[in-house]
Structure formats: C-alpha cells, structure tokens
Amino acid sequence: MQDGIFAWASALQDATRDVLTQVIAYIPQLAGALLLLLLGWLAARFTRMILVRGTGAVTAGINRLVPKNFALRLTPSEQAMGVVGQVGFWAVLLLFVTAAAEAAALPILSAWLDQIVAFMPRALAAGVVLLVGYVLSSVARDAVTAPLSAAGISQARFVGVVVQATVLAASVIIGVAQIGVDVTFLTIVTAIALGSVLVSFAIAFALGARDLVANLIGIQQMRGRFVIGQAIRLDGTEGEILEFSAAAVVLDTPDGTMTIPGQRYSAVSTLLLPPRSAGDAPTTGESS
Fold first, then answer.
1. What CA–CA distance (Å, rounded) separates 215 from 209?
2. Which residue from 144, 140, 148, 143 is spatially nearest to 164, judged by alpha carbons?
3. Residue 38: per-residue pLDDT
4. pLDDT for the residue numbered 41
C-alpha cells in the first residue's frame, strides 16, 4: 500500500516537472510574441497618426494646385480621415499579430491570419481604386455642373449626378475585380442601368431645354438686328436696350428695368423706335 502511494506521488511529481519544464521553455516564445504585439500596437498608432495628418496635408496641397475658380475643393471630414487612419492601424496591427502567432507557435491561428494577410494587398488595391474613383467622380461632377449652371440649364445638377454615378460605377467594377470577383454580370447590369438613365436624361433634357434653345436663338437674331441704346417696342413694352444677356434682352422702360426672354422676339412683332429729342412726337419705325 505504501509502495503504491510512493509510486503515485512519484508519477505526479514527474508530470508536474514536465509541465513546468514545458512552461519554462515556452516563456521566451510567449515573451517574444507579447513584445511583437506591443511593438505592433505602437507601430499601428504611429501609422494611424501619420495617415490622418498626411491625408490633411495632401488635401491642402491639392487644393493649392486647384484653381480658385474651380468648383471642386477637397474638404474631407474628420470622420473620413479617421477611417483612413483606422484602416492603416488595423492593417499594421494585423501584420504584427500574424508574426506574434508564429512566434508563439500557434499554427492554426497563424495559418488563418496568413490567409487574411495574403488577401490584404488585393483589398487595399480595391480600396485605393474606390477612393480615387470617388475623387475623380467629384471632379467630373463639379466640372460638368459649373458650366451648365452658368448657362442657365435647370438640369445641371442632375447631369452632374449622372456623370458622378457613371465614374463611381466604373470604379466599383474595377475595385471588385481587384479582389478576384467575376464582374461580368455586374458590368452588364450597370451598363443596362446607365443606358436607361441616359435615355431618360436625354428625353428630359430635350424637353427642358426647348425654351432655353428658343431664347438663345431669339437673342442671336436680335443681336444681328439691333444694338444697345436703340429704343424698341417688344411684346407691348417700349424701352431702350440696355443689355443682351445669353437668353434675354434688358430694356429700360418708364416703369423700370424689364427683362424679356429672347423667344418673344420670334413670337411677336418688334418695333424699332427712332431716336427721340425733347419735344418730338413719337413716330413709328420699322418692325420685324
């Protein structure tokens, strides 16, 4: 009985010694893994700070290069810059976590993290494509909207949105292709949707621009017939021509300054009044 107790005690002592030996042997690996995690956390925080500040500096540099009269001014919010910083933070931290898992001899975790790290370049490439696509779409939108708005086209904002959506759709397709997804179906769907939008826009633009085109044509005809300073009677209104705008004529009338759309010149008769001197009676001139 006593010999059996001594045998059990000896076996327990040997097992405890083996466990302690393995733990002591594992301490350097664990310490190395913890050190890598600490270094990774510090490097990730530093990367996040650099990315946030760098994004602001690059944005300021681009805005200095962009002409002041250009519509687009890049003004990323603090939240957007924070997202860029967080992406860099977790990307760097993931690299160090993978190295720490290998140092700690955790093969299953290490293999899983290796797959994620191998996927990171494609994911980052897709993110860069989407970011560049968003910036370019904003540039294209403002570059189209500004001149159309200046020309008085009411659908200018809609045209800008369509252009932006087109560039964004192209960037999304390219970005998705970067991560290895077959984009054939997505390309077909996008092309059909874009075609439908463009057809609808063409119809709406043709209907909405009808009056504008009529005004432009009418003003061009008036420019060839009359000059600033002449007195005319147009659409029942008498006055001196002060200005020809892009789509209207401005008259100085006894009741004040009046703006008449150019299309009225083609719709009604216009009477050219001769110059008047003090005491002259009004006379009738030529009409068109």
1. 10
2. 140
3. 93
4. 94
Domains of the chain: 11-105 (no CATH), 223-272 (2.30.30.60)
Residue 160, Cβ density class (10 Å: 0-12 exposed, 13-18 middle, ≥19 buried): buried
Strand ranges across the sheet with 256-261: 256-261, 248-253, 237-244, 231-234, 270-273
**How confident is the model over 73-106, as pLDDT tens digits?**
555 556 667 777 888 888 899 889 988 888 887 8
Q: What's the pLDDT at 1?
A: 56
Q: Is 180 left (phi over 0), alpha (psi -120 to 50) or beta?
A: left
* Residues with pLDDT less than 50, the chain: 71, 278-288
| Residues 72, 145: Cα–Cα separation, whole Å | 10
Q: Evaluate the CA torsion angle 127, 130, 136, 137 in order and state its sign.
A: negative
Report whether 217 contacts 266 (CB < 8 A). yes
Which one-letter amino acid corresponds to residue 1? M
Could you read off the pLDDT of 110-134 as tens digits, one per residue?
A: 888 888 888 888 888 888 888 888 8
Q: What is the dihedral of CA 148, 149, 154, 159, to 10 degrees?
A: 50
DSSP 8-state secondary structure symbol assigned to residue 287: B
Q: What is the DSSP string of 97-128?
A: HHHHHHHTT-HHHHHHHHHHHHHHHHHHHHHH
